[in-house]
Amino acid sequence: MMKHVANTEALIIDLRFNNGGSSKTVALVASHLFNKETPLSQTYQPSTDEATLSSADPTSLGPVFGGEKPIYILTSERTFSAGEALAYDLQSYNRAKVIGQITGGGAHPVRPFTIDDHTTMQIPFEKAINPNTGINWEGVGVKPDYEIPRDVDGLAFARALIENKP
Fold first, then answer.
1. Which of 101, 95, 96, 108 lies closest to 20, judged by CA?
2. For position 166, what pLDDT does the model report?
């Protein structure tokens, strides 16, 4: 799908109802939005003292949207996990402007742990670290560049920003 938008003048990514996904998908989508390989996030696993770096890498993708044209990301308080990762990572590189509400605040990958026959808990087992900021959005969410009330049409707001650009 990203190849279909490679030649557009601006891009709006709607993550208002995205409640998560794969860090590999975040890296793949972000790869279309940069001109060169760019580190996105490092996950640190305390139990093994291992860190894994995830990067955007457009070099083998063919036509991509690239790293100069404007990107606007729509968020809500329902945006969570991998949806937040894409917004946070692009925002940290000044690659996108975030529009909407502060997101849910779930940065650390979780895994289910069985407590007993009736109880399972989702417990973080890794810590996400943005190489640009040295931190993440855990518990605080991604703060929009343009914080707008829930009842304001975020898509119309983003379109107005695009239309008012010289």
1. 108
2. 52
Q: 3-state SS of the chain?
A: CHHHHCCCCCEEEECCCCCCCCHHHHHHHHHCCCCCCEEEEEEEECCCCEEEEEEECHHHCCCCCCCCCCEEEEECCCCCCHHHHHHHHHHHCCCCEEEECCCCCCCCCEEEEEEECCEEEEEECCEEECCCCCCCCCCCCCCCCEECCCCCCHHHHHHHHHHCCC
Please give the model's pTM, rounded to 2 decimal places.
Answer: 0.93
- Taking the chain (166 residues) in runs of 10, the rounded mean pLDDT of each run is 92 97 94 96 92 94 94 98 97 98 95 95 93 96 98 96 83
Residue 112 in tokens: 């289910």
Q: Which of 104, 164, 110, 114 is nearest to 140 (CA)?
A: 104
